[in-house]
Amino acid sequence: MIFITQSTGINGSNHNGTADVGPCEAGRCPDQEAEVRDRWRHGLSQVRGAVVISGAVRVLLGLCGVYGLLSRHCGPMVLAPLLLIIGLSFYKEATHFSSSHWGISAAFIVLVVLLSQHFGSCFVPIWRWRRSQGFSVCAYIPLFRIFSLLFPTLCLWLSSVILRELQIMEPYPAGKIPGILNSSSSNNSSAQRVPWLKIPYPGEWGPPAFTVQAVCIGITMATATSISSMGCYIMAAKVLGCPHPPRDAHNRGISLEGLGSCVAAFLGSAFGISSSVPNVGALMLTQVQARRSVHINGLLCLLLGMSPKLTSFLSMVPPAIHGGMLSVTYTTAVAVGVSYFQFTDIDSGRNIFIIGFAVFMALLVPRWFLQHPQHISTGVRSLDIFILSLLSMPVIQGGILAYLLDNTVSGTLAERGLVAGFPGLTSVEEGQPGPRDSTNVYRLPAAVRRLLECLSLRSFPLRNLCPDSDLPLVLPGSPEEKTDFLPCPREGEGGGTPAIDASKELGVLGC
Fold first, then answer.
1. Are residues 495 and 358 in the same domain?
2. 8 Å CB contact between 228 and 14
3. Pair 470, 408 in one domain
4. Strand 134-141 with 124-130, pairing
5. Considering only CA atoms, which of 367, 290, 285, 297 is closest in space to residue 331?
6. Cβ–Cβ contacts within 10 Å for residue 432, how many?
């Protein structure tokens, strides 16, 4: 499954490639409203240009099959540090939101833990009435677990509004409610002009500006979002107990995210489309394993995108609730990353060095460069921005370091975790079933499959986006298998049981 959201930054809630737009600082705004509007539009156009570049790069790499190739060489020693970094690198943002009111954030976390963990196994009977039978139980539903995130959000949101009106507690920073319900006169006048229905169209905010700085930032955004999205796909599969997505699923999923980012930017949005770690965390807490929930989520996002007033109403959610939400959902990335250690030889000195070095450097280097950006000075401002953006993102540092070290430092297959049981290596041979049949898990809808049958699947670049089941299979012993970084071990090699080449995995992505 793919979890896609229109997020608060180009990399979704992962915060690996955001770009803040502000027309001016407090006390420095021009007096003329027209000048303020022009400066705001100019800054917005540059950010939109970076979003378009990011989306175009992801589409191009997906069509070329780069993501599928990289996914074949991502073993447990790559996934474990990467997911750990994705989860740990977001503590600053969670702290920032929670610090607006630690009481609300703590109450949210306690309620989520109680509903999802302590009461998660409590099934509530659903009654129905029939004239012939009267009241009878028709089903038992784990109601507390399913609504373990929605109930605390609604209850604390309502409680915050009531306590604020009673002047008992101030849940909003600086005492101001964001959005259209702010009590200031300027916001009240603006609220009257906010329509209930407004359909965006291309060119409404002018064309995106493709400056050199926008290109550099866009490339960095594409790198960060690609690494994070691949981690989200694998994390979602782990939470659901499914085999890892096949190569074509990575190519197709990230390409569609890039296409969505381009469309959003041309429609006037300064935000892009990316996979969402909090969505995967919500999946783990609620245990709702249905594609219909993703369909409903997408439909609601479309409807909210056409109603500015309803969207602004959602901005009334206290920031402390957002902080609590991030605190409980990003733990999923940390937990899934730790779980991949079970497939490796954790006592190996090779593995200890790779894990420690990748995680430590991914947290150390970005922190230092964010505090001392003046040390990057090549004389070319665009190049300085590009280098600084690459060095200031933990997910890029950790992902690249873990990938290079695991695939270049010598080690046995058992040390690297490439043994039977690793969900990234599934078998299609008779008598060696994988955790679950990936062909059924990632099967495309029938209408999409019929459409693919009408296309030329063997031609480039459609070959990299189509399911492996629609392409010629690679027979065992073919020369193509020898180029894989993750070879199939022989019986007894490295102390592990034989694994299956990831290049043989069959399956398609369920969109």
1. no
2. yes
3. no
4. antiparallel
5. 285
6. 11
Same domain, 279 and 322: yes
- Helix, coil or strand: residue 140: strand
Per residue in 78-108, pLDDT (tens digit) is 999 999 999 998 888 899 999 888 999 999 9
Which stretch, 92-101, 104-113, 119-128, 163-172, has highest mean pLDDT? 104-113
Give the number of domains in the chain. Answer: 2
- Burial environment of residue 192 by CB neighbours within 10 A (0 to 12, 13 to 18, 19 or more): exposed
Q: Are 420 and 481 in contact (CB under 8 A)?
A: no
Task: Identify whether residues 282 and 339 lie together within a single domain.
Answer: yes
Backbone angles phi, psi at 456, to 5 degrees: -85, 95
* Cβ-contact 13, 7 below 8 angstroms: yes
> Do 207 and 339 have their domain in common?
yes
Token reading at 84? 């750990």
The answer to whether residues 314 and 411 belong to one domain is: yes
Vertex 279 angle, CA 276 and 282, to 5°: 155
Closest CA to 457 of 471, 443, 442, 475: 471
Catalogue the E-assigned strands of 131-202.
134-141
Mind listing the pLDDT tens digit for each residue in 235-256?
A: 999 988 888 888 888 888 999 9
Q: Check: CB of residue 243 under 8 Å from CB of residue 423.
A: yes
* Dist CA 83 CA 75 (whole Å): 12
